[in-house]
Amino acid sequence: MRHLSTLALALLLIPASLFGAIEGTVVNGTTGKPQPSVAISLVQPGAGGMQAIATATSDANGKFSIDHELPPPPALLQVDYKGITYTQVQPPGRPTTGIQFQVFDSATKPPQGMQMAHLIMIEPSPTSLEISETFLIRNESTVTFEDPSNGTAQFYPPKGAGDKVQVSVTPPTQMTIQRQAVKAAKPGAFKIDYPARPGETRFDMHYTLPASDTFSAKVVQGDRPTMVVTPASVHLTGNGIKEAGVEQDVQARLFEVPGTSFEVKIEGTGSIRERQSKEAPEEDTGQPKTTEILARIYDKMYWVLGLTFGILALGGTLLYRKGAA
Predict the structure, then answer these.
(1) Cα-flanking dihedrals φ and ψ of residue 279, to 5°?
(2) I need a surface site. Which of 63, 76, 199, 223 has the fewest CB within 10 A?
(3) How many Cβ atoms are within 10 Å of 298's Cβ, its own excluded?
(4) Burial class (CB in 10 A: 0-12, 13-18, 19+), 179
(5) Rounded distance between C-alpha atoms, residue 317 and residue 81, angstroms
(6) CA 78, CA 43: separation in Å to the nearest integer?
């Protein structure tokens, strides 16, 4: 009996991590305090979407313990807090104890410290007009922005794009996911219902239109002008745009849209993405990639380049499919 009691005591003293438990604390990043009564799940992507493997609830001190070993990658921890899903990657080799999982309070109006940049890239060819559109959101506040009525961002797809628009979302976790934009209240407008958590979030859309020497679009005016980018070999002339120069490193011509619409005539053809893939073929895997957003992205020219590189990183695989479910 004494031997069994000693063994039981020894087992209690062995760290839980040796048994495969995943332990940590849920912290409210808005208040800076531990967050109790939050369900946290160990999940793994599968054929039917995210599959919950095990779940635990944080205690009065925000602490949680999931009695399950880490599955093969990709393994994620996931929390639904006040209607917003937060996900954290748990890479192989990282300690499974002492984890800090952050959640945030939310706001329906853009918080102070949040900025949004909008870029439209036009790549004309003899057979098609390739349009890539990106929103980059930098949320430097400590709250998550979510506006159920108007969406996090609104945009006007070009005529011919159809009534279903696929959006590639890269949240602060840097794990790109797919969402579908939905029609907004204004005619022709779509909204993206995806929250902007603290950090950087990017929305990417891509449309293929018939070849044309004209293009027009509406934009939602924000705190900075929408930018239009073309290959340096392409010239735009018309109403509602102002040329801002050529960026030699990317060979891109830049235009500002100071108002809420523009209508242009297109002269020339070219592709920024094809040029970049030829210069760096070893990086073109044909799959969406995540990128590090340039630290200087909100300076006059560099935020444009950051958005442009974000589009290039997708390697032309941003998907828009008419009639997609």
Answers:
(1) -75, -25
(2) 223
(3) 14
(4) middle
(5) 32
(6) 7
Say which residue the tokens 């020219």 belong to: 301
Q: Is 69 exposed, middle or buried (0-12, 13-18, 19+ CB in 10 A)?
A: middle
**Residue type at position 309:** F
pLDDT digits (tens, 9 = 90+) for 83-128: 999 999 888 888 999 999 999 999 999 999 998 989 899 999 999 9
**Could you give the CA distance from residue 191 to residue 220 in angstroms, rounded to a whole number?**
11
Name the token pair of 170: 């890269």
Token representation of residue 201: 């979030």
Q: Rounded to an integer, what is the distance from CA 107 to the centroid of its chain?
A: 19
With residues binned 3-state (H G I as helix, E B as strand, rest as coil), the percentages for the chain, rounded to 5, are 10, 45, 45
Dihedral pair phi/psi, residue 176, rounded to 5°: -70, 135
Asked whether the beta carbons of 167 and 180 are under 8 A apart, the reply is: yes
CB count within 10 Å of CB 180 equals 13
Cβ proximity of 264 and 245 under 8 Å = no
- pLDDT by residue (tens digit) across 162-200? 888 899 999 998 788 899 999 999 999 999 999 999 999
Give, in degrees to the nearest 5, the angle at Cα 270 between 167 and 163. 30
Q: Does residue 315 sit in helix, strand or coil?
A: coil
- Identify the bridge partners of residue 167 per DSSP, sorted by sequence position: 179
What CA–CA distance (Å, rounded) separates 218 from 166?
Answer: 19
Cβ atoms of residues 226 and 219 within 8 Å: yes
